[in-house]
C-alpha cells in the first residue's frame, strides 16, 4: 500500500513533466498543424539559462523570468528563420525542419553553456512531505501545480478568448483567417513564443528534481510527444491526461516489474490505445467535408 | 466605391488576368459572369489581397489598396466570401460568426449575430454544431453571414450558388439582393449568369482573363450573344 502510494506520487511528478512538454506542443500544433520537435530544447533552454543566470549572481526568480523570456525569443526566431521561410511546404517537411532546429539548438547550447549536469536549489527546500505513508518532494508539488496551472490557462485561452479562437482559425484555414482580419503572421509569432515559454517554465520547475544538461531535450520531446499522441494532439486536456497517464504507467512498471521495462511498457500501451482510438483519448474527430 | 484599373495577375509565369478594368459604385450590385477558368476567382482574390497583382491598381473608397495585405482589407470595409466557402470546419457555427467580427468587441457584435440568425434561421438551430458538419447550402449561408459580421461596405461573393439545389440557389440570390437594403455594395462572381444578371444592376462578361462585354444587367440579359453563350437560350 505504501509502495503503491509512493509509485503514484512519483508517477504524478514525472507525468506532470511530460504533461508540460505535451502542453507546449498543443499551441504550435493548433496554430500550424506542425509537431514541433524542438519543444524539448525549450525545456532545456529554460533550465540551462536559469542555471547560468543564477550562477552569475541573479536571484532565482529573476533568473527564471529571464530564462523564460529568452526562450520565448528563441521560439520566435525558430518561426521567423526556419518555419516561415518554408511556408507552403508540406507539414512533414516543416516537422523535419523542427528536428533540424532541435539539433542546432542542442549544439549551440553545448557551446554557449557546457556539457555538465546542473541544478539550482528547490523553491521550497528539499525536506520531503509525508503523505499517506509515502514521501513527496516539495518541488514535485511545484511541478504538478505548474502543469495544472498551464492546463487551465491554455484551456481558458482556447475556449474563452477571441485570440485563442484566432489561433484555432489560423490552423484550420489560413486564407479564411486573413479574410476575417486576423494577422496570421502575428498568430504564428504568438504561438511559438507561448509554446517556448511554456517549455522553459517546465525546465525551470523540473531542474531541481531531474537536473539539466544540454542534451536533456531529446528524451523529453519524445515523451511529451508520446503523451500528446496518447491524449489527442492539440487538445490541452489530452496533453494533461496523456502526460500524467504516461508518468503513472512508467512508475508502475518500474515499481512492480523493472525499470528496464518502463519505456517499453509505456509505448506498448500507447500503441494499443492508438490502435483502438487513432485520434487519442481526447482527439477531435475530423469532420471535414468538401 | 471600387475601381480596378489595368489589373494583371499571374500564377508563376502564366498570366491569367490580362488587364481588367472594372468599377463598382456605392450601393450597386455588380456581377462578373463567365465560364469556368475565365479568371473570375483570380480577380476576386486580387481584390481581397490573397493573390499577388503583377501590375495595375485597385482603388477602394478613395484609397489605393493594391499593396495593402489581405488581413487589413476588411478593416477598410472590403469583405470576401471566397470560392469553396472556406468556413472554419472544426469550429462551431457560432464561433465562425464571432470570428467574422474578429475586428470588433462592442455590443453590436451580438446584435449582428442575432441579425444573421434572422437572415438564416437554420444557422441559429445549428449554432453549437461544428461548421464542417453543415450541408453545402448551410455552409454557403455561413460564409455569407460570417463576411457580413465584419461590417463591410462592399462584399465580394465568389460563386455562392455553386453546387446548390435550385431552391437554395433562389434563396441565396434573394439574400444577395436584400443586401442593397443594408447599404452593402456587392460584387458578385457567377457562372450562373442568368440568376446573377437578374438581381444585378450592371454586369461584366469575362473570357480568358479579359472583360469582353459590360453594361446594364438588363441589356446584357437581352443581348443575343450572351443568351447564346451563357444563358443557353
Ligand atoms: N492556384 C492556381 N495555380 C495555377 N493556375 C491557376 C490556379 N488557380 C487558377 N488557375 C488558372 O487560372 C485561370 C483562371 O482561373 P480562375 O480564376 O479560378 O477562373 P474562374 O474562377 O473564372 O473559374 C484558369 O486557367 C486556371 O486554370
Ligand atoms: Mg472560380
UniProtKB/TrEMBL annotation, chain A:
Recorded superkingdom:
Bacteria
* GO terms, biological process: amino acid transport
Query: What family does the database annotate?
Result: Belongs to the binding-protein-dependent transport system permease family. LivHM subfamily.
Sorted UniProt keywords: Amino-acid transport, Cell membrane, Membrane, Transmembrane, Transmembrane helix, Transport
| MF terms in GO | transmembrane transporter activity
Q: Where are the transmembrane segments?
A: 7-31, 51-78, 90-109, 129-158, 179-205, 211-231, 238-258, 264-284
Spell out the subcellular localization from the entry. Cell membrane
A single Gene Ontology CC term: plasma membrane
Source organism per entry reads: Cohaesibacter marisflavi
- What is this entry's stated membrane topology? Multi-pass membrane protein
* InterPro entries, sorted: ABC_transp_permease, BCAA_transport_permease
Kindly provide the name given to this protein in its UniProt entry. Answer: Branched-chain amino acid transport system permease protein
UniProtKB/TrEMBL annotation, chain B:
Q: Name one GO biological process term.
A: L-amino acid transport
Which GO molecular function entries does the Swiss-Prot or TrEMBL record give? ATP binding; ATP hydrolysis activity; branched-chain amino acid transmembrane transporter activity
Keyword presence, Zinc-finger: no
Q: Which domain of life is it from?
A: Bacteria
Pfam families in the record: ABC_tran (PF00005)
**Entry keyword set:** Amino-acid transport, ATP-binding, Nucleotide-binding, Transport
Q: Where is the ABC transporter domain?
A: 2-233
Name the record gives this protein: Branched-chain amino acid transport system ATP-binding protein
Q: Which family does it belong to?
A: Belongs to the ABC transporter superfamily.
Amino acid at each position: 500500500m505504501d509502495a503503491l502510494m509512493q509509485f503514484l506520487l512519483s508517477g504524478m511528478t514525472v507525468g506532470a513533466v511530460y504533461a508540460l512538454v505535451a502542453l507546449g506542443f498543443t499551441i504550435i500544433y493548433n496554430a500550424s498543424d506542425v509537431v514541433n520537435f524542438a519543444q524539448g530544447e525549450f525545456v532545456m533552454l529554460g533550465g540551462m539559462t536559469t542555471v547560468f543566470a543564477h550562477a552569475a549572481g541573479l536571484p532565482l526568480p529573476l533568473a527564471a523570468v529571464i530564462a523564460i523570456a529568452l526562450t520565448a525569443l528563441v521560439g520566435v526566431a525558430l518561426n521567423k528563420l526556419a518555419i516561415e521561410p518554408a511556408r507552403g511546404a508540406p507539414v512533414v517537411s516543416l516537422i523535419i525542419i523542427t528536428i533540424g532546429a532541435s539539433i542546432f539548438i542542442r549544439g549551440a547550447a553545448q557551446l554557449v553553456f557546457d556539457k555538465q549536469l546542473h541544478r539550482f536549489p528547490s523553491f521550497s527546500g528539499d525536506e520531503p512531505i509525508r503523505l499517506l505513508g509515502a514521501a513527496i518532494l516539495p518541488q514535485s508539488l511545484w511541478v504538478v501545480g505548474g502543469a495544472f496551472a498551464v492546463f487551465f490557462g491554455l484551456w481558458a485561452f482556447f475556449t474563452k478568448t477571441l485570440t485563442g479562437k484566432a489561433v484555432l482559425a489560423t490552423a484550420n484555414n489560413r486564407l479564411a483567417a486573413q479574410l476575417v482580419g486576423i494577422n496570421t503572421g502575428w498568430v504564428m509569432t504568438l504561438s511559438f513564443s507561448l509554446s517556448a515559454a511554456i517549455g522553459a517554465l517546465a525546465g525551470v520547475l523540473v531542474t531541481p528534481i531531474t537536473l539539466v544538461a544540454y542534451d536533456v531535450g531529446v528524451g523529453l520531446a519524445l515523451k511529451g510527444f508520446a503523451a500528446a499522441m496518447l491524449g489527442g494532439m492539440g487538445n490541452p486536456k489530452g496533453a494533461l491526461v496523456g502526460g500524467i497517464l504516461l508518468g503513472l504507467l512508467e512508475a508502475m512498471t518500474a515499481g512492480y516489474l523493472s525499470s528496464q521495462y518502463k519505456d517499453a511498457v509505456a509505448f506498448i500501451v500507447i500503441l494499443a490505445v492508438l490502435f483502438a482510438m487513432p485520434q487519442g483519448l481526447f482527439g477531435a474527430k475530423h469532420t471535414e467535408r468538401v | 466605391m471600387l475601381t480596378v484599373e489595368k489589373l494583371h495577375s499571374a500564377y508563376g509565369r502564366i498570366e491569367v488576368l490580362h488587364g481588367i478594368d472594372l468599377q463598382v459604385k456605392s450601393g450597386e450590385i455588380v456581377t462578373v459572369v463567365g465560364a469556368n477558368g475565365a479568371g473570375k476567382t483570380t480577380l476576386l482574390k486580387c481584390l481581397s489581397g490573397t493573390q499577388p497583382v503583377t501590375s495595375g491598381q485597385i482603388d477602394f473608397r478613395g484609397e489605393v489598396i493594391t499593396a495593402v495585405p489581405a488581413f487589413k482589407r476588411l478593416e477598410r470595409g472590403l469583405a470576401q466570401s471566397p470560392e469553396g466557402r472556406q468556413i472554419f470546419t472544426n469550429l462551431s457555427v457560432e464561433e465562425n460568426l464571432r470570428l467574422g467580427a474578429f475586428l470588433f468587441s462592442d455590443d453590436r457584435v451580438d446584435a449582428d449575430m442575432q441579425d444573421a440568425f434572422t437572415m438564416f434561421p437554420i444557422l441559429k438551430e445549428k449554432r453549437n454544431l461544428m461548421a464542417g458538419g453543415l450541408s453545402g447550402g448551410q455552409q454557403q449561408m455561413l460564409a455569407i453571414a460570417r463576411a457580413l459580421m465584419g461590417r463591410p461596405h462592399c462584399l465580394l461573393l465568389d460563386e455562392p450558388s455553386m453546387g446548390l439545389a435550385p431552391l437554395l440557389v433562389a434563396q441565396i440570390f434573394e439574400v444577395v439582393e436584400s443586401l442593397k437594403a443594408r447599404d452593402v455594395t456587392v460584387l458578385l462572381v457567377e457562372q450562373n449568369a442568368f440568376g446573377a444578371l437578374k438581381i444585378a444592376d450592371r454586369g461584366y462578361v469575362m473570357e480568358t482573363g479579359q472583360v469582353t462585354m459590360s453594361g446594364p444587367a438588363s441589356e446584357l440579359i437581352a443581348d443575343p450573344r450572351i443568351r447564346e453563350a451563357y444563358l443557353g437560350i
